[in-house]
Fold each of these.
Amino acid sequence: MSGWGKRLAHEEHGLDQVQPQPRPAWPDWPRLVLLALALIAFLRLTWALDAKNLWWDESLSLQRAESPWPALIVGRLVLFDGLTELTTYDQHPFFFFLLQGILLRLAGNSEYVLRLPSVMAATLLVPAVWVWGRLFTRRGVFAPGAALWAALLAAAHPFFLWYGQEARPYALWALMALISTYALARAVERGGEHGGGWWLGYALSAPLFLASHYYAVFLLPVHALLLAHWLWRRNRQAALLAALLILGAGAAVGAYAYWLILVRQGGGANFPEVDWEILFPDLLNAFSLGLSVDITKVWPLDLLCGALALAGAIWSVRSRDVIAAGGWLAPALVLGPVAALLIATTVYPAYMNARHMSLIGGGMILLLGSGLALTGRRQQWVAGALALILLAGMGYSTVNYFTQEEYGKDDFTGLGSYLDDRLAPGDLILLKSPFAERIFRYYLPIAAVDAARAQGAPIAHYGVPALRLEWGERERQVAELVNQYRRIWYIVSNTHPYMDLEGRLDRWMDEHLFRVQETSFFSHSSLRASLYLPEVPVYNEQPPPPAQPVDAAFGDLIGLAGYEVGRAYTPALGLPVTLYWQIFSPTQDRYKYILKLVEMDPGGSGQPVRELAVTEREPYDGAIPTLYWAPGQTIVEYSELPPTPWPRPATPEEAARYRLLLQVYRADTLEKLPVTRAEGLEIAPDGQSLLLPTLPETFTGR
């Protein structure tokens, strides 16, 4: 019989009677290795931490963290579509967002700050699995070396890289699962008499564990069993009562979550029914190689991880003595919550994907560490070789996470830059859906739109479909809006598509408006920006009359029949310019134009002395290229000059110094066309630049 068995035999194998062996005089090197692994984990987690944009779930974290404290605690979120508000409640408890709220108030709301609580949780997971590994090693449950193997795997784990760099509570939840259970295990290990500090630790950590994620209740049966096992020999009634109290607390939390998510808000539609044949492979892959791999390509490595974890689990329950020493607890950290989830699923579907079970991640890493240590009992090189294989797979997953578009997040920064240079007075921005309003506002120039609108600019943004209208009313609202503006930007993020799963609004836009162009932001993104016009801008007969008709030609090929210049309301928005193009003979070539706002030499030389803003593109960015133009048509292009500190001339004479400079050139050869006709207009000395007057009110507003 083992030393643990001899010690426990006369105690009838009760965990409450365990007297731990004297701690070995651990050399300094394991702690140095642990420190190095924790540092590696931290550096890996902080590297390119803000390279990926927030996604919709993370924007909910931002919105909640910046809310007033009472709203943050209860999870109250207010959604806004530009006209009406809708109050909803978050599906997660408050602890993670409380940490975020503190950091945001101290250091701002950058992606780095928002994700820092997850970084710290994933970093602390390394010492957390190490202390668990040492505890099980001291008890004879794990083979020597399991603690460091587990710490190594925790430092390199792709799943906790993914959620260690996401502003959501899943990494913190996994950490709190280990901390709370460890505090309880140490408290009962001391027989309850000398474990006051551990009892206090459990009393503090268990509520925080439950306040990290409602699915924490799935681990409470393990806590109940651990406590009941300790109390059983002392007082069976007390053991049953304690177990019932813990299970009752879990049931109360679960019932509240059920009421909040399903009853109060009608949620849960995104929880599909999942049986164990799907659940087990999904969890095994997630907690082996993470989410940034194709499970069909790495299945052999998943099986290797599963085999090692299974070996570690079996070794943990290899005898009654080991079970009595707490060996059952190692596999219970993984299997207990999974069993509880499957039981809950018989009542109502309760699973979305592996992040909803991240509380088993630490236990899975411990079993993997135990399996590696077990293989190294006779031949250390075998454990080393297996560890290298696992680390190679984790490294492959990590590289995918950082480099492959399919594992990226929507490029809201790219969308913001795209709109920064294009938005101008006269534009309507429709944001689909209103549930993503906070992330749109975070990355897009929505604040500039609001500021310009407050100054009277004809520009607006709305969330669509409207929150509180039926479909017919929603379509009528959009119809009323689009006819009031010169251009309509339709911004779609399908990370929350539930208001329009059938794409009814998309079809309405295509049926009633003219889509000029559509821009997607990387191949695997759901994020796109479409530019619509109220009507087709190509006129075969009489076009709408321009505010400033002109008669000009470039190379006797492309003509300008008129132009209009809007008003510069704010430096944060562009200057609206409308160009009325014509062509005199068909061409097989594509032509671009350069449009500049310039300040002319006040000495009368006819030379521009300063460029303020420049636009260079094909008409409608190539959507209506010159090779499709026909003689007799007029192509009305609603263009703009990008934002700049617009001039503020004090007198009409000063305003007269500013001109629009227009050039046309062949796209393939870059050859500029000469200005061959300019009735009543100026031509710059280069002979290739047409100078168009601007109105004083463009800048002064008078």
Note: Residues 1-19 have pLDDT under 50 and may be disordered.
Amino acid sequence: MDAEVAVRTIAWLDELRADAVDIAGGKGANLGELASAGFAVPPGFVVTADAYRQTMDQAGVTDRLAVTPDVDVSVASADLQRLVRDAGMPPDLRKEITAAYGGLCEQLGRVDAPVAVRSSAVGEDAADASYAGMNRTLTNITGADSVVAAVVICWESLFGERSVAYRAVKGHGAAPAIAVVVQAMVAAARSGVAFSSDPTGSHGDSVIVEAVFGQGEAIVSGAVEPDTYVVGRDSRTVIETRVGTKEIEILPGATGDETMPVEEGRRRARVLDDAEVVAVAELALAVEDHYRLPQDIEWCFDDAGSLRIVQARPITTTTTGRGGHLDNAPEATVLVSGLGASPGVVSGTVRVLRGPEEGATLLAGEVLVAPMTNPDWLPTLRRAAAIVTDQGGVTCHAAIVSRELGVPCVVGTRRATSVLSTGQDVTVDGARGTVAAGRIVAQPRAALTVPATGAGPLGAAPVTATRLYVNLAIPDRAEAVAAMPVDGVGLLRAETMLTEALEHRHPRAVLASGGTEEFLSRLTAALLRVTRAFAPRPVVYRTIDFRSNEFRSLDGGEAFEPEERNPMIGYRGCYRYVREPDLFELELEGLARVREETPNLHVMIPFVRTRWELEACLELVDASPLGRQRGLHRWVMAEVPSVVYWLPAYTALGIDGVSIGSNDLTQLVLGVDRDSEVCAELFDEEDEAVLAAIETIVTGARDLGLTSSLCGQAPSNRPGFAERLVRFGITSVSVNPDAIEPTRRVLAEAEQRILLEHALHS
């Protein structure tokens, strides 16, 4: 690349090459390499890293943007982002970006053409530091002012908490730099993934093409069963077609991506005809030829039928399939068939599981049969001899993990969980995509080198200012969930965790039999499995919220629990600790033991009704070994509407945060039992009265200097609800593990809209 381009603040993609990483970042350089080689990359330009560096130098903040290994991430992130924000956009660079955007719009023949504004950090996608998902991408941005504002947002994202922590861990102490890609948006009518070399090894020398309607995110998540086409590398003809059932599609909406149902008549229709399949395959092979390495590409057809390449990455990871092959095996009855996702042949006993919470029942060496897997299944997948799912394609979670583990896998069978039965002997052929009856003696398999792929950018988690926590109850899941893109545990439910730890015995029954130390040891062991997995991220432990009807059913519970007509609003939560301080004090002693090793543990008091009971409860905390430990945060649950009135008083008592339990708050605001089938239609967390209460709590917490969170079901199920929370100014939300990815996307989109609104009106 010539010196003239190297010093530019604006560089067009087709001017860049793969060696332009220092000025265009990893993403910009890669897109530039493809564009300059003549591939159909959507046009665009890069606001170079030199432009960023120059801006920070002129503002005099470059030296202050370095990161030291011992940095306090949460404090440093806010300070560093403020430095970048205050540096702002210099007038000369604003003019250059405005002119470049105008040129792009002219090139596209549109006024205020929609663009994607994508962070491209210098050093990302390197061999030793990927920075995947660390920095911001903003989509469907229109207008020059919005583009300029989006560039600054991308600059700021270079100093998000996770990015700062990652650089500190990697020892990347120098002030980092970032480029920003501004690229024409493609309204994808059909999209997907293509492998220039079969990642499963099951189709010989072939190209694999997967396709869905709309945008391609649905493939990686496993939300859609894609069409799968096999193309001969030499013949360039379609040699196999499998049409998936595509129930949803992701399309650009007025305010971001929208998930829409596919009409019944299109769900089983082919996404691509043969000519289009071959065109995608030839594109993948051309990229492979250019890089001289097998490639995993993301592609799309726009509304006009033009084929575009969105991203390309090498297929470099190898796995070895377990088991043998069936070339000389006797004929067997095929029970179900699907997509061969990971090669190898294994015989074993079926275990049908409906969710990861049932994973503990899977015995080592059994064949796991499930509707679909997500990251919560990881501990279970490690014990499986083979994996069979109803849904998914060869890039879904089950497929990717199985290839990494070298476990035979068949996905997209559509009916495995209904046809196969626990205890049944089967043989799984992960190359052919079949599950046969009985145990078949397979021929030994030679070591097989198979290209593997990761989720890549489609699966990268966006960074958000609103922290995303997870709700957790089972310590066995802590390690797998901690590996997901979450900021900590916002709600660790003591009841479920302790019930399992005590083997379904009532806590007082354990104590009555002289088991004080047993209670403490089991509590601390369970807690440490969670706090160690998430350290140094915070774990907010909600103390045991006894409800008489639930705990009467435990072994020995009838001797200790009253019978109540409405236990949901009965003898529970904070009031119970005041009436039965001995058990609460024992629980606090266990928490203190855990914090001695893992000080990331904090405490939350549930179902607080009045000021006097919280004051009495906090006196017990202060008098305990836990209360004498430094750095302990005291939270209260906001489940009872009285919190709207009492929050200032609670703050004066020394609480640090408030977490809204939207399920209980909704039923008490609306006066409806959340578990009532008869009154189900009345239970609505988005009722304006409920939202008004939540807004009052969040804004009140902000004014009082408290952190605020919400840990009900609504953010997991209702994107609009999550956006309302962001607009209220909530500090964090806490959701179930299976909702992490969609919730983070919703939060990011909401923040993007709000930031742009502020930028345009400032």
Note: The radius of gyration is 28 Å.
Amino acid sequence: MDTNKQIIPEPSIPKEANTNIDEIWQMLSHQDFLIRQKGVRNLVKISNISTVERLIKILNEDSYVRGWAAWALSKIGSDEAITELGKALKNEEQDVRCWAVWALAEIGSDAAVCKLLYALYHPDYEVRWRAITGLGRIFEKPSSKDDREVLNHLLKTVKDEDYYVRSRAIAAIGKLRAKVAVPILSQALYDPEFSVRYRAAEALEKIGDSEAVSALMQALQHDDSDVRSSVIYSLAQVNSQLGIDSLLKALRDPESKVRAKAAEVLGKFKSNEVINALLEALLDEDFYVRWRAASALGEIGSEQAINGLVEALKDKNPCVRGAAASALGQIGSKSALSGLWRSIKDKDYYVSKRVAIALKKITAKSVASKMIANQSQQSNLPNILITSYGEAGEHILCPNRGPLIKHLISIASPGVDLPEGYTNVPHRLRLEFDDIDIPHNDPEYVLATPEHIRKVINFVSEVSELNGHILIHCQAGISRSSAVALTVCAQLLGAGKEKDAMEIVMKARPQAMPNLWVVELADDALGRGGKLLEVAQGYQG
């Protein structure tokens, strides 16, 4: 089950222990910008008109702390803050304008939206595209806000002279899923810039009605192979036979790059028709098409593909042979063993390594409990796995390890796919934020929030009552996942055990370098008075 149930009150913004107003003012004047940052964060606690004035001054004048000033203003979100941020859009310095747009989008109120609509027509293209992206994020989530006026303005920006602005406008329109925009998005499929075409295809796929799907299919007939290739990934998301038929047709496209993309995305479909088409693509004249076809057959995982993949182990291109070996390992059938053993001494190291891995997967007999490190002898602490995105899928889908994993915290940047086997784990939590520890004025980046940590704490309160191992992953398994794992361990072990919690994390993932902002949020939420943050700082490279 997915869990987002609220159990405890939302934690407050991190603050320095025993910090009073006089100390905050002193911190804001300190020569060390890190201390000034802490002072700015604490201003949120005493938000008033004078606080807003001070933050605006910092936003305009202190480049080292500017991002945190914008962050603090976005947390205050008052009418005064919105008014002053609107004025900052006219600042001569571009960085100030960009941070002002970011803060307005973070606030997201009706008054802030009015300022962002004004920014859509700003002479600076940086301000325009950031305002567009911010509006897309505000209106992406279901709410009572009327998005018709916003949509009308966004439709105008699709014709912006700057291609980057056009692509962001189309992406924002896609988030609104407005069917009225289909004709304009259909035209954008033929924009000279690839990024615009790609975004248009994504937007049409999100809208997903018959008119939008028809536009994607028509683009697959275009004379320009770049246009044809730009719609392949979107057609793969269309859950209909029409979409599959279009992709099968693209698998016979005269351009190899189109065929290769079609082969790659067909791996998500498991019909006999698709398998036979991919087996035929294993004989394509272009090695990249054969490579993608082999990988796709591995994703499908049908024993129907074994003979073709065994034959592909003899392909003249090592990339194809390696992909075939990996695919056979994914399928996991013993009927592939003889073919794999014949290729174990392949002259290419890349291939022989993948053959060995495939053989190990198929013949593995080791007991799962020996494969998972025991991080702690604490009776109330489950075994904890900290992994990368790719490793998470391997653990979950492993026939030995997978069944032991009962809890999953999946951490990724917004829009990144779930790891393979995500729904196989019965008790799971999905968190989406980027691996940053300071505000980033690019609206595509999302900073972790107290709400994210609240969800982790609520999740762990249930984990402690259940059996089974817990897997925590992010993209690389180094920063975000280790910070969340530290939060988990600190909560389960209790106060005063912060160092023990950190040692468990390092034993589970020796390369761990916890994201300090996430740890700071956790420290405050758990009431550790800076102790959790202190032990995490000791493990920074």
Note: Residues 4-19, 365-379 have pLDDT under 50 and may be disordered.
Amino acid sequence: MTELSDIQTDTACPSCSDPGAPATDGRRTMLSLLPMAGHTRGKRSAVTCALKCDSACAKPAPNTSDNGYFRDIAGKAISRRHALGLAGAGAVALAVGSSGLAAAASPQAGLAAGRGHGHGHGGRTNLPFKPITPVAATEDTFVVPQGYTWEPIIRWGDPILPGGVPFDVNDQSAEKQALAWGYNNDYTDVIVTNRAGTKALLCCNNEYVNADIMFPPDLDATEQLRISMAAHGFGIVELERSAPGEKWSYVPSAPKNRRITASTPFEITGPAAGSDLLKTAADPTGTVALGTIGNCAGGTTPWGTILSGEENFNGYFRASSATPENKRYGLNENASSYGWEAIEPRFDARSADYANEPNRFGYIVEIDPTDPTSTPRKHTMLGRLKHEGANVVIAKNRKVVAYTGDDERFDYLYKFVSKGRYNPNNRKKNLDLLTEGSLYVARFHGDSPATEIDGTGTLPSDGKFDGYGQWVPLVVDGRSKVAGMSVEEVLVFTRLAADKAGATKMDRCEDVEPSPKTGKVYVACTNNSQRGTTGKAGVDEANPRNSNRDGHVIEITEDDGDHTSRIFRWNIVIVAGDPSVNESTYFAGYPQDKVSPISCPDNLAFDSEGNLWISTDGQPSSIQKSDGLFKVPLEGRERGHVQQFLAVPRDAETCGPVIHDRDGSVFVAVQHPGEDGTWEAQNSLFPDYVDGTAGEGEFAGPRPSVVQVFKK
């Protein structure tokens, strides 16, 4: 669920060990011709690189700015007073008139519930387990700890809407797919909807598709494109079970079941709505966009809506590469990854009629899962970038704060603060909280001498990578704080605005999750093997390793516990990797020889006890192991003790973890299993493990699925 990594390893494309089979019938299966073929390491396929992020690592990183990506205060610890001064200096540089710190106006409000955030409960964990042994990347198996079992809840192609029919891989159509569960789930939440705990809503992104293993060779090429568009987007389905702790089953044709696709109308909200930058021939108002694509991670709001991040949208378009704005977003004139421009002119943005169509993607979208008739919305106020997702907390003054990362090498971390205040008794008003407010980008400062950050991952003399940071304003209460850019320009070309602001270039900020127990914010930096290479940004204390193939996790503590604050303290909790082969690992001081090896952190979640759960995308590159889900305590003697809970099948990545530990359940989306296969030679049989003797209507190949793991 992420961009591709890089030519040598990064996750989203950390790699395939087997470049795959040649094309057989002129279809796009020839893996040997893919840009990343032969250049990836670890377990990720070059196919994933091509389909998920348009082989981004085979191309120059879009961020070519020479901004002040990091400034160490050599030999001097940064005090809170000094940090305030830095915040003030940044404000002056950007013509900001607001104060450096937001005042706390009321007692701490509750953090966002949902998506395995534990709903604020405390107490001992209900998920004791013995860590599993890492599984070889070649194994086509789903592995859980002793005492647990697993079953799929729903698979690609399962019918969910009235008129849907049982999945038959040899009898597919766009009309059938529009009534069925989509492909490649990512962000996932299971929202219990009744007091008895026997009914729920399952909400999931559908990030991208792989036509080469989905469709039989004789299926019409145009129909393949139409099915692919219908398999993108978002899905909502009602669940039921007999009692708490039992397995959930989905309910076909239930009233709240819904599919949102690449063609569903979305309302555009916020200051950029109606801007000339968003108008097209099909939508001269600039207020209605069709579809959502490349949806990666997300979040569940305190008012019960789902936020979904549009990530690698650039690969869906042909566009002029002459403009700096398009270049900064990785848009170019090449044929798109999916070829949708052949059936819908809007995906060919080289024409004047649709030059702005790419500007209508790259937002946080909000979906109300309780109302299948509601129009989903794209919020320009949170900026346009390759959003991994967004997660919301309620600040002390009851303003809504949303954190989001831009999942690209050398891009940035952002924070939104609402203008309005959360009212638990007024859901209708809360639905507009993300349409107005202020947008900030992060600048990190280390507290160790620059000479001690040498790129090897060796800890500085104070024993940890840490320091202060500041949230630099881009838009504050409807006014641009970036010289030479209007509010609309900042929100549509947010990357360019953040370049001007001097934000810190990060190693691919993916999921950003606030802890419901402590309020601290955790940032998964998946990897960046171009860090410190010729012509690229060098190391800094927040990104301390050259050729960072394994990634790290940052812990942020907002000043005075106020999420609207303009300054924060930070430290690196995990410097990931396999300690047996990589000495530059760190697990918050926990003994390296007692942890499960972990690489390329991606999605994050919490259990009710406050433990962090990490799903991986490229785990671990050094020893060719399957991706998985890992538990990490954050407090006490066990802080940093990484323990692997599960492993996913061949070629797959672990997405959308949901931790209902009080219910004894864990949910994950198994994305792109068998990615490296072909129609004739499938590379996975997950989740049904039907062999080559499959009967009529059965599929001897992989079906991306949402899985529940529960105690036997």
Note: DSSP finds nine helices and 32 strands in the chain.
